[in-house]
Amino acid sequence: MTENADEPARAAAGPASSEGAQASTAAVSRRRLIVGAAGTAAAGAALGAGVTAAVLGSNERGAASVPGASGTDSVDLTRSVPFYDQVHQVGIRTPPQRHCVYMTFNLTAGATQQSLQVLLARWSAAISQLVQGKSIGPIEPSRPDAVSVDTGEASGLAPASLTVTVGLGPGVFDDRFGLAAKRPALLANLPRIPGDVLQPGLTGGDLSLQACADDPQVAYHAVRNLARMVTSTAQTHWVVLGFGRASAGPGQETPRNLMGFKDGTRNVSTDVDYESFVWLKDADWMTGGTYQVARKVLMTIETWDFDRISDQQRIFGRTKLEGAPLSGTKEFDTPDFALKADGAHVIDQASHIALAAPENNGGVKILRRGYNFTDGLNSQGLLDAGLLFLTYQNDPQHFVGLQQKLGSFDLLNEYIRHVGSAIFAIPPSPKAGRYIAQELFE
Amino acid sequence: MSRKLRAAVGLTVAAVALTTAACATTAPTTAGTSTAPAASGAADGSAPVSNGAAQIKVTLTNNGNDTCTPDFTTAAAGPVTFTVENLSAAAITEVELQNELKILGEKENLAPGLPASSFTVTLDGGSYTLYCLGATPETQTFTVTGQAAAAPTGSTASLLNQGTTDYATWVVGQSEELQVAVTNLKAAIDAGDLAKSKTAYVNARTFYEKIESDVEGFVMPGFKVSDNKGNLDYLIDMRASNLDEAVGWSGFHAIERDLWKTGAIGAATKKYAADLDTNVGKLVVVVKTLEFKPEDLANGAAALLEEVQSNKITGEEEEFSHTDLSDFAANVEGARQAFAYLQPGLEKIDADLMTSVVTQFGNVDAELAELRDNSAPGGYLVWNEANRAKHRKALSQAVLGLQQPMQKIAEKVATAK
Question: Is B78 in the same domain as B178?
Fold first, then answer.
């Protein structure tokens, strides 16, 4: 039960959940919007959030949607995801929302253990308000010389399944804050990985915020307000504005990356996989936590778009429209990497799926929760866009091992550049009355 | 223009101390029963006294609503310590004690899980309000009985008031220094000495930049604010980007253009210098009439930091000379002076906030010190595109760190008693 408690669908459907009750009553009064195929939208509108939520909550892939059909996923902006009293932080197993703002921070030269403590406590309290669609303080203070506590642009907007996931970088545990003894066992800067062309301004960070929501303004408001309340303690480092989820959660249709291919067909999805590959066990104060790796991956989009379809499909190892492995006919057909035709492998051994497949990596899987992004145009007038690749794993070496292989051999490398990179420890969810990573200060 | 502050009677904030002990696990047994006196309370139901102060424990909890509950709502006159602990009220970030909407003492940055923290105020008999921002209800009555001994030092308001008077004197002094520096600049220009003129220019700029936040008052008598002909700030400090064609270009930046871009002193340059000298003379007269309220100093300091963030770090101010960092340092110095005059009063209202501002000024100073270059005019790196690209992020973020606590001061000092 608790394993799925971070899914808004579950929370909304569960009769014992106060958050669920809030979502249902909110449906009456708040502005709400359902997008999707007419049938789904009508059902959602007529029967309320619970029904839509229940449909989306189905763990059986494809129950709510037909793979390949478009627009059958629905969004109910009135849904909210509880923050406190979860086992794991939300925003990881939560079905990916449509939009995501990912920002990293560096602690300032003057930051102390106490100011870090206040930052984490204030962030936790504020996030617990934001996820309910509330402001974090007066938008229009009564005193004329007072400054607005909440900037206001999310006023009147529904919670939109906002989740804000907080990460702690390796720098938190260096000699600045007296926390070295509590360093999560596997938290260390990532090694140099073949193919990396990392830019210092897009690399590393002491803290990360992953704010995802079905309304981009809700996600942006959250990060903006969390950043502004701590400028004396933490400085912004780098940010990616993600739109269009590029990975699927339970019951969601597999979305597509900007190359037009489905991404995440074989993602971590079962309880067993989460236990084996995502959540930390017997990890002291980090038990129930995980590690987040963030990679900003640029795509050379124009060049990709001029590539012939047969080459594109060879590079991924899948068909473009259906997403079927080249050894099969349907998206969820298990790839047959041994299959040959005319003496050659049907799925190229250097294709993306062949190199990344668990069966070719000692069974290792990582949870991918990426978002497409664009930064507009680059200095050449070309589309500046790509994938914000966010992964969660209980051993960062799982990511490193996979990426070392992909960075060296992936046919896709001709069209992508890993320019940003960071790793963060993701502490478990706080209980009500506590804050994220409070254990560090006890 | 200035509102005279009423002198407050019988109040002083004795101390503001952060309780560092982690006592998040000791939930007060009286939480939720706001009026039940504890066994240790005085016979009349008022709060017990220890360490020379009446002790009030304020507990913030969520029971469906976020609530703010003091264990006693009555105390005897004298020092009163409020110890605030947020157990589970995520919406409550701040607790204040007020009297007639004036802040007497407060605690900010409250969040569930943090150790309890406290503030102490000395109260005379009367009715007060405990204000818990974000709580249901937000305000509760707090009653003080009896009479406190007369406060040994001045009230917060009188300290702040004294600060504004001293600040006004300081501003006049700066304007007079500016007059001397501009006269020197004029002499160098009249002599046709380019190198000396450049040095004199950078030197004169700093005096203006220190008091730039008070430009709203730099209007000559008889002119509307919207008429640039009577706006001394416009006449002295206009830039090409905000040129009013009807008035024409003059002032510091016209001189800057001639000295650095054209690299020659002409008849027009001499005319600019003469006009600047005249206008600064008028400014000195106007500045002597200015009066300030405490919040003017706080808002002025915040405005100078905004100037730094928006015009200096970007290199917009000194388009030709690239001496923006010298202006930057002067803006920061002006903000520091305004803050310093509020500091004695602010310390009584919120010592943590005061300390935070002092710390953040230190961080900005440290960033700026990295950029010193004694061989350059003004003593700082030439703020060209290459140097901006290298250093602006660190500078900008340090200033942002100072802006964060600074933004809160105006509200506090405007409502001080």
Answer: no
